[in-house]
Design goal:
Order of helices and strands: HEHEHEHEEEHHEHEHEHEH
Shape: globular
Pfam family, one: ZnuA
Family: Belongs to the bacterial solute-binding protein 9 family.
InterPro entries: AdhesinB (IPR006129), Bact_metal-bind_prot9 (IPR050492), Lipoprotein_PsaA-like (IPR006128), ZnuA-like (IPR006127)
GO molecular function: metal ion binding
Strand content: 5-15%
Low-confidence stretches: 1-34
Radius of gyration: 26 Å
Helix content: 40-55%
Largest sheet: 4 strands, parallel
Mean pLDDT: 88
Number of helices: 10
Keywords: Signal, Transport
Structural class: alpha/beta
Number of domains: 2
Number of strands: 10
Distance between the termini: 101 Å
Length: 298
């Protein structure tokens, strides 16, 4: 009888121990839930770069537009709308880069989401009846976009304001160092003209007093006409263009044809719309600046 009692007691002890461990585990998980990361959705890669630079381990970022897809060509699906509905902060480029945005907003009934227009306070370049949306390819604009993101994160998570402010300051200092370095370099070159496959570098040029000529316009309207091609060939010859820059999301065929016609080489340049060569924003922009600078040096 005593042995049976002890066996029963042992079973009860094990069950109580297991239950206690489960409760401890539940409390631990509950604590993790209370400290869970802020859910952030961005439309495409450069905004993710800025958000991660400011939010770091306090946030979890998901990119809405798949790699290799143009943000203005994207159409959100039901699963995308569900993701947006459950996030705290939704960051978009602005300037009609996301032409589908209004329809998307109208489909979301979560009024607590903070929608961040990263183009707020940027001096946009007007093109006909629209604006050039490629603002992130300017170092000066990147600071403004990052600041807009920082302000949104502080609004959601004010207790970590100092953390976000410090990260923004670090990012801003890195951008300033890169800008000042190449501002000085570009001031030393006489030729300020370069040629790209896609006219995405208007703000980049404005930062450094440069001039781009491109095969496709700002909105990637397709291959150039015969007349446009002749103009580009003449432009390259007159301005001694020895490099034609290629971008990942633009067909290289016409650029390669142009380069062959004028005796130039083709070189890759980053638009940063997708993650390229595993480089972060600063690394990609430094690579772009160095390549353009080398192409302009005598």
């Amino acid at each position: 009888m005593f042995k049976k009692f002890m066996k029963f007691f042992s079973i009860i002890a094990i069950v109580l121990c297991f239950t206690s461990c489960e409760k401890a585990s539940f409390k631990e998980n509950t604590n993790e839930d209370n400290n869970e990361k802020i859910q952030v959705i961005v439309t495409f890669n450069p905004l993710k770069e800025f958000a991660m630079a400011i939010g770091k381990d306090k946030i979890e970022v998901k990119t809405l537009v798949p790699e290799g897809t143009e943000p203005h060509d994207f159409e959100p699906k039901i699963k995308d709308l569900k993701q947006i509905h459950n996030c705290k902060v939704f960051i978009y480029n602005g300037l009609n880069m996301e032409s589908w945005l209004k329809k998307c907003k109208d489909s979301i009934d979560n009024k607590d989401i903070i929608f961040v227009d990263s183009s707020k306070n940027i001096d946009a370049i007007k093109i006909n009846n629209s604006y050039d949306p490629h603002i992130w390819l300017s170092l000066l604009n990147a600071k403004i976009q990052a600041n807009n993101i920082k302000e949104a994160l502080i609004k959601v998570d004010s207790k970590n304001k100092d953390f976000y402010e410090k990260n923004y300051k670090d990012f801003s200092n890195n951008v300033d160092d890169l800008y000042n370095d190449y501002k000085e370099k570009f001031n030393t070159v006489e030729n300020k003209k370069f040629v790209t496959g896609h006219a995405a570098f208007g703000y980049f040029c404005r930062d450094f007093g440069l001039e781009q000529n491109s095969i496709e316009d700002v909105f990637s309207s397709g291959e150039p006409s015969a007349n446009k091609m002749k103009e580009l060939i003449d432009y390259c010859k007159q301005n001694k263009i020895k490099t034609i820059f290629l971008e990942d999301m633009v067909s290289p065929k016409v650029s390669e044809t142009l380069a062959k016609e004028v005796g130039a080489k083709t070189v890759k340049i980053y638009t940063i719309e997708s993650k390229e060569d595993n480089k972060n924003y600063i690394e990609s922009m430094k690579d772009n600046l160095e390549k353009v600078y080398k192409s302009l040096k005598k």
